[in-house]
Amino acid sequence: MPRKTTQRGGSPLHWSAESWAFISLRLFIGLRFLLAGLGKFKTQEGDYAFAQYYDGFATWIIGAFEKTDIPGFLISLYAYSIGYVEIVLGILLLVGVKTKWVLALIALTFVSLAYGQMVLGDNSKVDDIGLYLLFTSAALYFVRHNKLEALR
Hints:
Blueprint: H1 17-39, H2 50-65, H3 72-95, H4 99-120, H5 123-142
Helix pairs in contact: 1-3, 1-5, 2-3, 3-4, 4-5
């Protein structure tokens, strides 16, 4: 008979499969988001620079969406903030701060990214983002099995 514990975390040796599934999803999604955000700052030489983000990535996004029906100020706001949003949400998820709410914000971010790709007509990227959204939904389902959380 499995040993029951009243401790919130308990020993990892006694965690359920659901707890392990959640921590795996949390680590994957957190790292994916953090590295996606950092990648927007990465130069060709492998360094990280704000100039790359503002002059490279954000300018490219604004140019890609300028012929769509989305208002320009929304495109600019999104382009200049998405990298920071990804980094902050990735770190918060990895650390375990308000995990359920951070996962919900990540899910909404994935929906917004998918919408942008739908507007551009890039169905393969929509499919990829949909897969990440599925992982995030699974993490939200298993969040009640969270054993490691810094701030509830």
